[in-house]
Amino acid sequence: MTEKEIQTIDEIEPGRLLPETDALRSAGWRLVQVLCISSPGGSELSYSFGRGLAMKSLRFRALPDDEVPSITSIYPAAFLYENEIRDLFGLRIERIGADWLGKVYDVASGPTGGGGPFSKVTITGPRSEGGTI
Amino acid sequence: MSSGHEAREANAPSVIPFGPQHPVLPEPLHFDLLLQDEKVVGAVPQIGYIHRGLELLVEKRDYADYVHVAERICGICSFMHGMGYCEAVEGLLGVAVPDRARFLRTFWCELERAHSHLMWMGLAADAFGFESLFMATWRARELIIDVAEETAGGRVIFGSAIVGGVSKDPSDETLMRCMEALKPARDDIKKLSRVMLQDATVRHRLEGVGVISKEKAYELGAVGPMLRASGYDFDIRRRGYAAYGEVGFETALETAGDCMARAAIRIKEIEQSFSIMEQVVAKMPAGPVSLPIKGMPPVGECFARLEQPRGEVIYYVKSNGSRNLERFRVRTPTFANVPAMVEAMRGASLADVPTIILTIDPCISCTER
């Protein structure tokens, strides 16, 4: 098996995250990491799953004000990745199973609830607090 | 106040803070332990006390120089962090390092795994009050660190990983002499391992404690000895990176999923590391140890996956075509093991919590990269 066959990245529509994730879990894949890359226009999220030596990633773009659904209802262990991304990148992630409410790193938002220290998103106006229980 | 309300109050779990400063924790990690009497019914982990933002620093440093930062993510797996970063960048550049560099990388990886597991064994012995085992273990570890210094030049930060190969080239004679020098340590470790696995007091503290099933360990994303101690056969060295495709080794496996099984896995892996180092030295090819790397990395991205002492680590690099990478990310094994660690505590007694945390061998320095 070549490295390209071992590691695949599929671009998906944001709305397909939960059904695609659910299908992977049913097929025996487990969550191995969630990666966020920030740019002025928004964030790119890659959810990687492993089965044996193979790794498959689902990728989509989230705009600054998009609310990203949590996958903790499918993979409970995702709570750590999602809390971290919300704190460091200021991304809104909805309904995290174990929600630390921005206290993983305690650096997430300024008084107006802007992006985190790793965020490159351009904030044009005040934002509400991200995340809900 | 009604008696029903009082009864509910009496049954509510007590919250006991554990850490961030605790005698068994060399690094800060906090748990809110939810207790019914002495039994843990839940735990809420808290990290983030020493986060350093090293991933963000990649945007400010030349991609070739950043190896020095990557090596400093952790003082225990320093070489592997540097090498993992290099493997990811080399994937981006589309270069294959020379054979001798692949073998030397494997040698240093296994040297690091052996000293990391010995460090863990000493810390675990210290945690349950077996001071003489702690000191004897660390004395044996010192010989391994001496070999690191002789072959790579550094005792903590090896400083020998570079993009395109390695920067140090110990002679074949030096490597053979080092393997001879490791023999007393190897003999001592066999004796110490018998104490760790057979002593009645140690078994009393570790057997049947912090059990996690094979299914739960897999589902919660556990990696390394945490996963293999529950019976799941997964070791990313099977991918054959560096020279792992050219040496023989059996994946260390246990099935009990308790603290003792995790200890047994690490002890098996120490001997396995010596065996791999022996094979590497015997098969060491001649030739250069690095390739000249010139120019900028092309636009693109690459994942690299290695087996560190604590489990699989995933590196990611993304380049925009300049000398500074756009993104570097490390998914460390301890980060992946936190959910399984919480699960292993469920149902344990409060007195066993420090032992359970230690048998996960958490590295907070890696986690707070």
Could you explain the architecture of this structure?
The complex is a heterodimer of chains A (133) and B (369). Chain A is an alpha/beta fold and 133 residues long. Chain A has a domain of 92 residues: Beta Polymerase, domain 2, CATH 3.30.460. Helices cover 19% and strands 30% of the residues of chain A. Chain A contains three helices and six strands. Chain A has a four-stranded mixed sheet with strand order 1-4-3-2. In chain A, strands 5-6 form a two-stranded parallel ribbon. The C terminus of chain A is likely disordered. In chain B, strand 2 and strand 3 form a beta hairpin. Chain B has 14 helices and eight strands. By secondary structure, chain B is an alpha+beta fold. Chain B has one domain: Cytochrome-c3 Hydrogenase, chain B (Orthogonal Bundle), CATH 1.10.645.10. The interface between A and B is medium-sized, with 28 and 33 residues.
